[in-house]
């Protein structure tokens, strides 16, 4: 039996073969890729994106200036375009602007942070953190207009299995950070450990595991960041040609 093919339409370039559609009882419907080649050369577009993202910095000094919910919604939508194992989309972005909830998150986070700095962290770890002047005080958790808690879904909401959980949620988180930067917002990837308090504070179900806590907002006026050098291409890439 021959494999069925789609009828030609305007999305199929003239003279090209239409894509083969899988067959079988559980075949996923396929549609033509919405691909739009950039008007500029690929390397120009890639360099432009790099230059934009190279200005992204982690900040710990936020302005309390409000950020609209619509802005955060679009950033979450961008995160939701990430690939995921078997397309299970095992993430949830819990977006908090309520002042009382932010206060409770800060209080619980600082309990864990005190334990980290006083007992849990090794001397080597503390030494590596010392140049960044971090400590257990996390006032930015109340100042930033939004706290976005990224939850990793250990199961689907229907109880089904998820796959490549950390990889999938990590990619979605990266897209969220990029979208926030593109919107003119600053972020911080905050990882109080353990983070179980986030699930209980936010009254999230058992199958959701706190993955990352991200304050989002505008940087404070006069915000300072460490003077850092990112690794060069030769240190982060290997080309086999």
What would you note in describing this structure?
- With 241 residues, the protein is α+β, with helices and mostly antiparallel strands.
- The chain has a domain of 167 residues: NADH Oxidase.
- Helix content is 35%, strand content 11%.
- Strands 1-2-4-3 form a 4-stranded antiparallel sheet.
Instruction: Give the total of beta strands.
Output: 4
Rg, Å, rounded: 22 Å
Straight-line N-to-C gap: 41 Å
The CATH topology of the domain at 57-223 corresponds to: NADH Oxidase
Q: Judging from the principal axes of the Cα atoms, what is the shape?
A: globular
Helix-strand category: alpha+beta
Short description:
The chain has helices spanning 42-53, 69-79, 99-120, 123-129, 140-143, 165-182, 196-201, 233-236; strands spanning 91-96, 146-153, 186-187, 208-217. By secondary structure, the chain is of the alpha+beta class.
What is the element layout, followed by pairings?
Layout: H1 42-53, H2 69-79, E1 91-96, H3 99-120, H4 123-129, H5 140-143, E2 146-153, H6 165-182, E3 186-187, H7 196-201, E4 208-217, H8 233-236
Antiparallel strand pairs: 1-2, 2-4, 3-4
Helix pairs in contact: 2-6
Core attributes:
single chain; 241 residues; alpha+beta; NADH Oxidase; four-stranded antiparallel β-sheet; 8 helices; 4 strands; disordered N terminus
């Amino acid at each position: 039996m021959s494999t069925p093919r789609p009828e030609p339409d305007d999305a199929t370039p003239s003279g090209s073969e239409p894509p083969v559609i899988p067959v079988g009882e559980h075949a996923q419907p396929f549609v033509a890729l919405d691909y739009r080649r950039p008007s500029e050369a690929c390397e120009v577009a890639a360099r432009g994106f790099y230059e934009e993202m190279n200005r992204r910095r982690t900040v710990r000094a936020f302005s309390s200036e409000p950020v609209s919910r619509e802005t955060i919604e679009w950033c979450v939508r961008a995160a939701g375009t990430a690939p995921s194992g078997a397309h299970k989309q095992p993430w949830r972005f819990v977006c908090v602007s309520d002042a009382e909830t932010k206060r409770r998150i800060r209080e619980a986070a600082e309990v864990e942070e005190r334990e980290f700095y006083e007992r849990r962290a090794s001397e080597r770890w503390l030494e590596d953190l010392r140049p960044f002047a971090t400590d257990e005080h996390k006032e930015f958790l109340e100042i930033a207009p939004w706290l976005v808690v990224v939850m990793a879904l250990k199961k689907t909401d229907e109880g089904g299995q998820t796959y490549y959980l950390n990889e999938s949620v990590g990619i979605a988180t990266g897209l969220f950070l990029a979208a926030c930067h593109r919107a003119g917002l600053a972020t911080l990837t905050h990882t109080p450990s353990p983070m179980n308090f986030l699930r209980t504070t936010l009254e999230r179900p058992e199958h959701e595991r706190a993955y990352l806590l991200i304050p989002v907002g505008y940087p404070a006026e006069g915000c300072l960041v460490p003077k850092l050098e990112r690794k060069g291409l030769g240190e982060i890439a290997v080309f086999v040609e």
